[in-house]
């Protein structure tokens, strides 16, 4: 464990004892070269103490306010339910803490834009926690596209689905930003925008809602980009567990086998195909050693805190992503194409 006097690593505090934090993000950050988790808070102090004991975190607090008042904490990881992302990110920033906030960063683009002013006023770093943007397989994919390996990128297709129907899950509450589009649809959206390096000019979508929970259980959308590119996606909370991303260019394609929940115990693979033969017979596999993208995310954000590089996913980027989600929901109501910027 890093001593409290060692300032080579950024000292992190964790808001809440959410599963994603306790099971995945915190252990991964603890293995990083740039991140040191020094405190965790929960509104249930026993829960915070249990998590601190399990993860060997030095301090546990029974309120978020106590954590934000800790002078040793430099940065906050905010994995609270979606409707608490912006309020507690603002409070953390106003306390002088840098903030890595779980996705989606806000419930709407207008709410996300408030973080632009907060960042400017407080001078802290604020980023959205799309861990996938740190994974070597995706950095390689983007480099392959930029190098012209598949010609001009024209179509991106994404699918991210799992099955969970639990009325007690925070993702089952519409008012708290529940539903599949906010939870997993945001991933193919952000990757499509990142790959095209531009914002879609129009979006159209279709949603199937759970009749009792009222959340979107299946959502599909189509994005049209100014360059002429297109991106389609399907996200679901009540379908068989599956994920895949396909990139189609004028002279080749790339398939990302496990695009979002990349395993940490075995290599990941992408396939590059020039289309000479159908049935994937001409696809060339490229393999990447096993890494933990949560470790990389924490270290990259910590580096930005120390003035080295920039946060992987900026507030501006986060605003653009939630604006697309807003447009999908507007399109479902209007039955028409909607502009994300409107």
Structure report:
By secondary structure, this protein is α/β, with parallel strands linked by helices. The protein folds into two domains: 135 residues, NAD(P)-binding Rossmann-like Domain (Rossmann fold); 172 residues, Dihydrodipicolinate Reductase, domain 2. The chain has nine helices and 14 strands. The protein has an eight-stranded mixed β-sheet with strand order 8-9-10-7-11-12-13-14, with helices on one face. Strands 3-2-1-4-5-6 form a six-stranded parallel β-sheet, sandwiched between helices. Helix 5 links the parallel strand 5 and strand 6. Helix 4 packs parallel to helix 5, helix 5 runs antiparallel to helix 9 and helix 7 crosses helix 9. The protein is globular, with a radius of gyration of 20 Å. The N terminus is likely disordered.
